[in-house]
Specification:
The chain has helices at residues 18-30, 45-50, 70-80, 84-87, 92-104, 137-147, 150-172, 182-192, 234-254, 269-273, 289-295, 311-318, 327-330, 345-357, 359-376, 379-383, 386-390, and strands spanning 3-8, 36-42, 61-65, 107-113, 128-134, 176-179, 197-199, 223-228, 258-263, 280-284, 298-301, 323-326, 340-342. The protein is of the alpha/beta class. Helix 2 (45-50) links the parallel strand 2 and strand 3 (61-65).
């Protein structure tokens, strides 16, 4: 029985943002079945220093710095008639690393994490190929195109069309195509006609995300309404701007002590500027988001555009906090009515205000939410479906050679 080659668009360690969390837990799970070799990009200098954390889960590791600017990627995309999503991750050193691993090791499965990495799968293969799209990127850019105008709208539309063609080709060449939710899987089937489409949902580490766990507590004034996420990611940026400009003012009419706290690394200038609004704090990167989640009176996920399952919602639920999410952010999560969901400004503002006014109900909702994720969203349960997809049987953990 051969090894697994795991290709990732971003090193899945430390597991401190959505894609890295899913990637890490899948890699960790696979390492209990077979020897796994990792080839991945890094785009954060700190990740290069901490990559040793993957040693116990991997054999060979090749982590390549991704330095190409977005401007250069866009220029290359226009000249080559390819999507920017691919040219941004086109790298000869990584391609050579793939060839080297395939030549030197008995690889029987290539696990491709994200559509950007499908370009590194050789044309003629004897290995099984598993495409983990996570969600449908072309649909995201199609939505961007609808909400953008002028050159940007044209560029987003172009990206959506070319990326859709790439996704179709990648799916045809794969033995299995994986998505994070049934909603994403069904959308992919509908738009591509692809077969062999399956769902492996995200989970949550309920031992780490536990309000009684050991972590640094946060002392804060007022009653925090907390949002967590990567703050240079467009849906997160748009979501917090929408909340601050249109939803928060309604909440503060009845709850003037309410404070909206935006927690996450790399806040854009537009996000930083939100701190000028009354009752808004932008923390930037924090060492541990659990402190802020534990301090939250309410956790919110006011996303207008969301693909797949939102880890920020699962994390808030696991920390036994009352969660208010937009319909888009809640999609795909079997929450069993243990979170509150709103579509409009009024619905979200009312839900948050009600929870701030009724701490007892908020606590009961949070406790029910934690119980729901404990029963429904453990990583072991969510990833068990990989055994059948990969044709592997459970066995003891393999460590790095």
């Amino acid at each position: 029985m051969g090894d697994i080659l795991f290709l990732a668009h971003r090193i899945p360690y430390p597991p401190d943002r959505g894609d890295k969390i899913r990637g890490f837990h899948i890699l960790k799970y696979l390492s209990t079945k077979k020897r796994v070799h990792l080839i991945a990009f890094a785009d954060d200098p700190k990740d290069l220093k901490r990559k040793g954390g993957l040693a116990r889960y991997t054999g060979n590791r090749s982590i390549i710095w991704r330095a190409k600017s977005q401007t250069m990627a866009a220029l290359q995309a226009l000249l080559s008639h390819r999507p920017v999503s691919l040219t941004a991750f086109d790298n000869q050193q990584l391609r050579a690393s793939v060839e080297n691993i395939l030549d030197r090791h008995a690889i029987d499965t290539i696990y491709v994490f994200s559509s950007q990495m499908a370009q590194y799968v050789p044309q003629r293969l004897r290995q099984k190929v598993i495409m983990d799209f996570v969600d449908m990127d072309s649909a995201k850019f199609a939505a961007y195109a609808q909400s953008s105008k002028g050159p940007m709208g044209w560029m987003m539309g172009r990206e959506a069309r070319l990326l859709l063609a790439h996704e179709k080709a990648a799916a045809r060449n794969a033995d299995a195509n994986i998505f994070v939710s049934e909603a994403e899987a069904e959308l992919f089937r509908e738009r591509t006609g692809a077969e062999r489409v399956q769902v492996i949902e995200n989970g949550i580490d309920t031992e780490q995300y536990d309000p009684s766990a050991s972590f640094k507590r946060i002392d804060t004034m007022g009653r925090p309404i907390v949002f967590t996420g990567q703050m240079d990611y467009r849906p997160n940026v748009e979501g917090v701007i929408w909340f601050v400009e249109t939803i928060l003012p309604h909440i503060r009419v009845d709850h003037p002590d309410a404070r909206f706290v935006i927690v996450g690394r790399n806040p854009t200038d537009a996000v930083k500027a939100l701190a000028k609004h009354p009752g808004v704090t932008v923390t930037g990167e924090v060492a541990d988001v659990r402190g802020w989640l534990a301090a939250a009176a309410v956790v919110v996920a006011p996303l207008k555009l969301a693909r797949g399952i939102q880890n920020k919602v699962l994390e808030g639920m696991a920390m036994a906090r009352p969660v208010v999410a937009s319909a888009a952010a809640a999609q795909g999560i079997e929450h069993g009515d243990t979170i509150m969901v709103g579509e409009t400004v009024g619905e979200i503002a009312t839900a948050v205000s009600q929870l701030l006014s009724d701490p007892k109900r908020a606590a009961e909702l949070g406790a029910a939410a934690r119980k729901q994720v404990q029963e429904r969203y453990s990583w072991e349960a969510r990833l068990s479906g990989l055994d059948e997809i990969l044709g592997i049987k459970p066995r003891g953990r393999r460590t790095a050679a």
